[in-house]
Amino acid sequence: MKKFAFHLSLPCLNIEDTKKFYVNTLGATLGRYSENWIDINLHGNQVTFTKTGNFKFDYKNYRFENEILPSFHFGVIVDVELWGKLYSKLFGMNLEVTAEATFLKNKLGEHLSFFVMDPNGYEIEFKNFKNDDEVFSS
């Protein structure tokens, strides 16, 4: 499967807190930036955060298998080694990290997953598929 990067632009409350979380905590790299916005390289994907002041997202949860997951989230699919390193690192910090879960066990699209919340209240999902060819299979 050929891989392409995504671009996502999101509002944020504080540029500096957001930069520290993504660069220092998640290990992402800083791209272009100004006083009011930053580009983050999140494993080859471009996430732009723009300072907006107060904002409110009313997002509901949904049930997938036996887990309740946030409807509003974004994520990155990574290899199993990086997934394990990130999970261990983030779980050991004082962050809201969900327990690891395996979804679609022994089915098409089986994957490991966990979520962590950033300083803006966004839920970020990190996934690892047992078989990369099944990311979009149905």
Description of the molecule:
The protein is of the alpha+beta class and 138 residues long. The mean pLDDT is 85. The chain has a four-stranded mixed β-sheet with strand order 1-4-3-2, covered by helices on one side. The chain has a four-stranded mixed β-sheet with strand order 7-10-9-8, covered by helices on one side. Helix content is 17%, strand content 39%. It contains two helices and ten strands. The radius of gyration is 15 Å and the shape is globular.
Assembly form of the protein: single chain
Give the SSE string: EHEEEEEEHEEE
Query: What structural class do you assign from the helix and strand content?
Result: alpha+beta
Task: Provide the spatial order of strands within the biggest beta sheet.
Answer: 1-4-3-2
Number of helices: 2
Uncertain runs are none
**Number of separate strands:** 10
Question: Overall pLDDT, averaged?
Answer: 85
Q: What is the helical fraction, as a range of percent?
A: 10-25%
Shape: globular
N- and C-termini, Cα separation: 15 Å
* Largest sheet report: 4 strands, mixed
Radius of gyration: 15 Å
What fraction of the residues are assigned to beta strands by DSSP? Answer: 35-45%
